[in-house]
Design a protein that fits this description.
The complex is a heterodimer of chains A (124) and B (498).
Chain A (H helix, E strand, L loop, with lengths): L1 H6 L1 H19 L3 H23 L22 H32 L4 H11 L2
Helix pairs in contact in A: 2-3, 3-4
Chain B lengths: L6 H16 L5 H29 L3 E5 L8 E5 L1 H20 L1 H7 L5 H20 L3 H20 L4 H32 L4 H14 L3 H18 L8 H8 L2 H34 L2 H22 L3 H21 L3 H29 L19 H15 L5 H14 L5 H27 L17 H19 L1 H13 L2
Antiparallel strand pairs in B: 1-2
Amino acid sequence: MLNLILDNRFAIASVILFVTGFANMMLHPNLIKKIVSFNIMDSATFLMLASRGMIAGRSAAILTDGGADVTRYVNPIPAGLVLTGIVVSVSVSAFSLALVQRIYGAYGTVDMRELLEAMKKKGE
Amino acid sequence: MPFAWNLPYLSVFLTMVTAILLSVIPGAKRAYWLTVGVSAAVTVMSLVFLRFIVKADAAYAFTMGKFPAPFGNEIRFGPLQGLLASVFGAVMCLSLLGGRAELFEDVDEKKMGLACVMLNMVLASLLVLSYTNDAFTAYVFIEISTIAACALVMIKDSGPTLVATIRYLFMSLLGSGLFLFSIILLYAITGHLLMPQLHESVQKLMADGAYTKVLALILAMMTAGLGVKSAMFPFHRWLPDAHGTATTTSSAVLSGLVVKGYAVLLITMYCRVFTLETVRAFHIHDAVFALGFCGMILGSVMALRETHAKRMLAYSSVAQLGYVFMGLGLGTEAGVAAALFQILAHAFTKPLLFVSVGRLAAAVHHDKQLRALRGTAWKAPLAGVGFGIGALSMVGIPLFGGFAAKVNFSTASIFTDQKIALTLFVLALSSVLNALYYIPALINIWSDRKEAALPETNEPGRDTSAAVAIVLLAGGVLFLGVCFTPVMNIIVRGLELM
């Protein structure tokens, strides 16, 4: 049992992180914390992906004087996917932060519940 | 290789390059007309491509870059993809034309270029979501489409649209997070991202009986993720605000196209990667059917309670997307084909309704409460007729697209064992519910000719581009209602060649 947990420690950690991020994103009323939760959720998927591509004892897929012997390198595709994923997640975070700033300018709050009340008061 | 096989790639390339160039091209009008031109060009290119691919009666994979499969990136196109791309391009072009006056009023002149960047990005991602043969590329374009669609909601830049955008954005991010995680799990157990290779591995795993729980989880997460993004019940709460508050063009594009892109991707994943047998083996289709069933009824019930015309149309979109999921939930090829036909029919009908309401509301200072729209059809008769055609199509009157969609669902349900009674029942109930809110709205806009002359109304003015859009969108609805057999033939053949 312990071995099973140890073998899958990255997968378990990423699932816990994913669920944490997901639940907070659904339930937390604070918009900034929602964005943080989104980043936790995305990081969990990157952890999962990076750990899947890792093979113990091998190095990153950068050609050195050792030549192109495939048994010496890890799979480079997950790393490429993580990079793409990070770019996506950074741009989405930037967009949401900009949006939250505009909302704060319009209503003076970043709390979803207060926001809906403020909208009701304004009759929107 | 005939030149026509380059057209799908070129149409994506054209929209992406235009989007990038538009961020530096000055001038609101120039940006707008360039976007209209590009979407028209995409339509023409896709139609030419469709003609050739239907004649060739085959589907091809097109390698992007110099790495061949299984390492490189691919798009794959057949008759179905050509048909979808043609409709997406045409509806985008007509939505732009139909909402022109309101777009120039609602959007700051300096920001028009950026709005057009987003419109091009939406079109590009819709094209890629139907063409791509690579699961990770699909994820990247899902996110591009998310940002672009959210930006389209917020271009009006008023308090309510900002709040609607953030709710839309967070729901969308939950959806894309689920989709990403499911793809990564799939990659972890198969080692592939290209769909044909994924298909082979999944079939092998199913035959060996290995990783069945993981496969079921992957399918469930993927369905839920794309379901959130295409407003599957009960994840639809973001849609009425986002689609109801945005400017006419945005509402038309979002309701008519963006939510469909994800549904098309889900269908592609089901048919090309997992096969419907796998979906049936895990009973995912039963869950999808149940959620579609609830969406059809509750979307209409909530639309009945609405007093704001655009929010009513938005809730009606929830119900119409319920049809798509119900079709998918039948778990048969015929059901999926009917769902695809519904996607096309709704892609013409809902923008027609949004554009018509936009034009009608122009007569009462853009007040979109149903009460305010009373008698406005006499001021803008063409928009009144357009709304009538859209409404009758939604109710399911013969000769209109909505009727053909309902016929397809009914015939598809015959091939299922248990769902025929439920399907026919919900189709009938939904038609009655649709009639309950569309027919009063239609009578409302055409009643009290005298009251329309009250001082609070103003002359809506001539708007040729909106007239062209209404005529062509209505033409699309009628075409799908009358000539649905050839369209269905393309869809069915496209599904076989998926």
